[in-house]
Design a protein that fits this description.
Layout (H helix, E strand, L loop, with lengths): L36 E5 L3 H12 L3 E6 L3 H11 L4 E3 L3 H4 L4 E6 L3 H13 L3 E4 L7 H13 L4 E3 L7 H12 L5 E9 L9 H4 L4 H6 L1 H10 L5 E9 L11 E8 L3 E7 L7 E8 L2 E7 L7 E6 L2 E6 L4 H19 L7 H20 L3 E2 L3
Parallel strand pairs: 1-2, 1-4, 2-3, 4-5, 5-6, 7-10
Antiparallel strand pairs: 7-11, 8-9, 8-15, 9-10, 11-12, 12-13, 13-14
Helix pairs in contact: 1-10, 5-11, 9-11
Pfam family, one: GFO_IDH_MocA_C3
Protein name: Gfo/Idh/MocA family protein
Organism: Negadavirga shengliensis
Amino acid sequence: MENENDGYGLSAEKTSKQISPPRIDYLPRIPKNYWPKIGLIGTGGISDFHLKNYKAIGLNVVAFADHTAEKAKAMRDKYYPDAQVYEDYRKIFERDDIEVVDITPHPQDRLPVLREALHAKKHVLSQKPFVLDIQEGMELIKLARKNGVKLAINQNGRWAPHFSYMREAIKSGLIGRPVSVDFSLQWDQTWIKGLAGFEKIHHMVLYDFAIHWFDIASSFMEGQQVKDVYASAVRFDEQLYLPPALASCIINYEQAQVRMAFNAHTTLGEEDVTSIVGTKGTLRSRGPGLNKQPMMEIYTETGEVKVPLEGSWFENGFQGTMGELLCAIEENREPGNGAESNLKSLQLCYAALKSADTGKVVSIVT
C-alpha cells in the first residue's frame, strides 16, 4: 500500500523558463557636472584605495593632510603630484576653494576633525565606523544640517557589485519584500596573527569586519521595523590569533529575519554566499572570496536568469561612496550612505556586541 506521505519534505520538481536579465543600475554613479576640489585628511593605508579609485573616475584631490608629512607626500606624489601637503589639517578647512573633505583617521581621533569640518561648512565623507556613540553621531548630523552640508559615511560594501545589485533589485520590487537574508562567510583571516592592531580587538569579526554586513543588511531591509538582535562569538583552541574567529547573529524584524554566520579561520575552501528570499522571488550570489562575486542568480515568478557582474568591491566600493556623496550634493538630496542611515546600521552592530557579551537578546528601540 502506497503511503500518501511518501516524498514528504521533498520539493515538487519545477521547470523554470529562462528570462532576460532585468535592468538594474548597480554600478557606482558619478556627478554630471559637479567636480569640486577635494581635501584628504589622514594618509594611512586605507587612503591608498581611496586615491586609486578617485583617480580612476577623474576626481580632483588638491590637498593632503597628515601629522606625518612624509606619508602625505608619498601619497601625493603617487596619485596627485600637484596637490598641496599640510601637517595641520586645519589648513584644508581654511581654503575656500575646497568644498569636500575625506576624513580617514580612526574613530577616536576623527570625531573632533569631523566637528571642525562641519563648522567650516565642508561636505564630509567620514571613514567607518562613523562614531563610537550614537548620541555623538546624532549631534554631528544636526551640525551638518545647521550648516547646510552633506555628511556621508564610507561604508564601501554597499557598492560591492553583488550587494549593490541586490539593494537596487529590492528597490525595484523585483523580488517583493525581503523576508529572509542569509550571509554565510568562510574566509581566511589568519594573516592578522601577531598584529596588535587586530589581535587587541576582541570582536574582530562582529565589529571590525561585520560592520559592513550590518550596514548592508540595514540597506536591504530599509522600511522594515527591526525588533531585536541575538549574537554570539566563539574562540577555539587551534586558532592562530586571539579574537574569536567564529561568530553569528540573528536580527529579527516584525515580518522578516536576517541571519549571519562567520568563520574567519577558514584556511581551506573559502566561500561567501548571500541569499535573499522575498515574497516574489530570490536573489543569490556566491564566490570564493569577498572582493569579487562573478554572478547574480535571480529567481522570480516569471522565470530565472544568471547575470554576470562587473567590477569588484575594492573598485566599485570606494568609487561608489564618494561618487554618491558628490551626486547628492549636485542633486541637493541626502546621500544614500548618509550619516542618519548609517546610525541605524551602527545600532544593529552595537546591539550585536552587547548580545555577544551578555548572552542575551538585545531589543532595538527606534
